[in-house]
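Reopening: structure tokens for the S-adenosyl-L-homocysteine complex, inputs below.
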Amino acid sequence: MTDLSLALREKLKTEFTLCNYKILEKQVSFDGTIKYLFDILDGNAIETVIMEYKHGRTICVSSQVGCKMGCKFCASTGIEFIRNLSSGEIVEQLLAVEKNLGIKISNVVFMGIGEPLDNFDNVMKAVEIINNPKGLEIGARHISISTCGIVPKIYEIADMDLQCTLSISLHEANNEKRSAMMPINNRYNIEELMKACRYYIEKTNKRISFEYALAKDNNDNEKDAEELVKLLKGMLCHVNLIPINKIQDGKFSKSTNENIIKFRDYLNSKGIVATIRRELGSDIDAACGQLRRKRGEKN
Ligand code: SAH
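Re-run output (same inputs, fresh job):
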């Protein structure tokens, strides 16, 4: 850009990067879901998924290269954590997909690889860019942030008056069982997590979405449903039931359809709104929890 002054070119070079992901792999599922493996230009690769719903196209973005949380049922577990993604690298996932498909994305979920609240500042900055009319102009209500339960950050979000949806990966209503599934529960247990959630609801008047991945003979029987009802009774919330996806060497396997429906009906009968998440992209390892960081490490 020799039409710019040398000083300006130097400034641009030191203060900005042009981020233009290379597509390493692109897989298309029979249900229309597409999974990308992007080369993020430093030798690392991340995965991004795009799904089509009646209400528009939803992108599932990664927030970190790897994850430190160690949830036992998740494919990101057991892979070394490399680094946080910058806000630009998060936003670039949307731009790269929009450009490649020639589409406009309408919804964003922070449910790819990584724990968004463990990369708080960059994720919040990315949300601002995605939401801003001078940025991607996607309404805050169309952006969901999902966390395994980093309690202090939930308080911070509550005080920020953010209009995004907050999803909590709960998966268990019992401390002993949740700790066995999700190490974060040893740091912030269910009582502390629920206290933060109640504070969030009180401050924002917004409904929380609780994710509950149903694993056969682990958290899918009547007693589990009863404990969950006790925990959530009277709360402004919604329960998203996910048929758990078995990962390689994982000890958790999917509940039967019959149990999943029974579980949902029980919650609904007790006044707790629960829906079953439609499974998308399972044939390309793009369903919940199946994303892996590197090529050659797929299930
Ligand atoms: N770290 C964040 C976001 C990434 S995971 C979080 O924990 O919320 C996005 C969702 O997929 C979470 O609810 C997570 O618990 C769920 N998930 C992970 N592995 C899964 C699997 N094998 N089957 C079903 N859901 C899974």
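The mean pLDDT is 92. The longest strand covers residues 45-53. Marking as resolved unless the reporter disagrees.
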